[in-house]
Q: What sequence folds into this?
């Protein structure tokens, strides 16, 4: 499975990066809806505002979601919510983060980019581990562009082999 190699890998790379941005926006939208539902259930004051803050913070890789968690927890404690509601809100945050990292990103980013889910997951882990937030942010786009060039050079090599065989 993968994308058909393009005659122009640079044009294909731009197309793939556009697909990456679109997929990220879909993931952010899903996160926002999940935050809204979960924070409403947890009785977070101003839960629609915090869902939007979660969306805005999702543009900051790794640490952005922690901002949402800290703001929600602080607001809940200041609003005198009991620890059960604070725990539910934290559980919602954890669930959204797990769903994004282990389900949404590998699935939504793998197919449109011509990548399999496991390499996408591994790229996210390795990028985040070795290069922190920037590595996490750039891991999948770099993998996608590398895949475009890999497919291009592989197809060129196959074409060259076929030409040699017919000569």
A:
């Amino acid at each position: 499975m993968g994308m058909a190699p393009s005659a122009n890998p640079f044009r294909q790379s731009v197309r793939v990066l556009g697909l990456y941005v679109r997929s990220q926006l879909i993931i952010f939208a899903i996160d926002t809806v999940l935050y809204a539902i979960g924070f409403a259930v947890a009785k977070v004051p101003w839960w629609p505002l915090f869902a939007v803050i979660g969306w805005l913070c999702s543009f900051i890789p790794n640490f952005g979601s922690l901002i949402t968690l800290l703001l929600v927890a602080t607001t809940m404690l200041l609003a005198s919510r009991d620890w059960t509601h604070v725990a539910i809100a934290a559980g919602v945050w954890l669930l959204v983060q797990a769903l994004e990292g282990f389900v949404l990103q590998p699935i939504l980013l793998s197919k449109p980019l011509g990548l399999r889910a496991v390499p996408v997951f591994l790229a996210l882990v390795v990028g985040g581990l070795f290069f922190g937030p920037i590595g996490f942010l750039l891991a999948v786009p770099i993998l996608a562009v590398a895949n475009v060039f890999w497919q291009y050079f592989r197809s060129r090599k196959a074409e060259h082999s076929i030409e040699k065989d017919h000569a």
User: Anything to note?
Assistant: The first helix runs from residue 9 to 41.
